[in-house]
Design a protein that fits this description.
Elements: E1 5-10, H1 13-23, E2 27-34, E3 37-43, E4 52-57, H2 61-72, E5 78-81, H3 85-94, E6 99-106, E7 109-115, E8 121-127
Parallel strand pairs: 1-4, 5-8
Antiparallel strand pairs: 2-3, 3-4, 6-7, 7-8
């Protein structure tokens, strides 16, 4: 058994696709029209056959409440691993990404948190 799909709730699939591809650097894997929304996934270019990230519409009221509560408390929705967190944070800042937590040591990892422009805080993690 293995993980093949993870989701992040987004308030606008087009904006999310732009952010996660043009800014974050993922590539679009799947796009299937489903009425008002789409089954829309992206993957890391380093693992094109790896775990897909579903850009899930936050159309259900519970998802909006959940996202807002996490963001209000400063809790990241999910986390992505990077090899050089300071370089990645600098690259993303250069593209206009707003960080709510600059890279800082947290025991065996260094973490940073940013706003994905779609209602989520996302954590970057570098293992020491």
């Amino acid at each position: 058994m293995r993980v093949n799909l993870a989701s992040v709730y987004v308030d606008d699939q087009d904006r999310a696709l732009r952010f996660y591809t043009e800014v974050f650097g993922f590539v679009k894997k799947t796009e299937v029209p489903l009425g008002e929304h789409r089954w829309l996934t992206v993957v890391s270019p380093e693992a094109p056959d790896g775990v897909e990230l579903l850009l899930e519409p936050d159309a259900h009221p519970a998802s909006k409440t959940f996202k807002a509560a996490l963001a209000a408390d400063g809790i990241p929705f999910t986390s992505f691993a990077v090899d050089d967190i300071r370089a990645e944070a600098a690259r993303l800042r250069g593209l206009g990404v707003h960080f709510t937590l600059d890279p800082q040591d947290a025991g065996p990892v260094t973490i940073a948190v940013f706003d994905d422009t779609c209602g989520n805080l996302i954590q970057l993690t570098q293992t020491h």
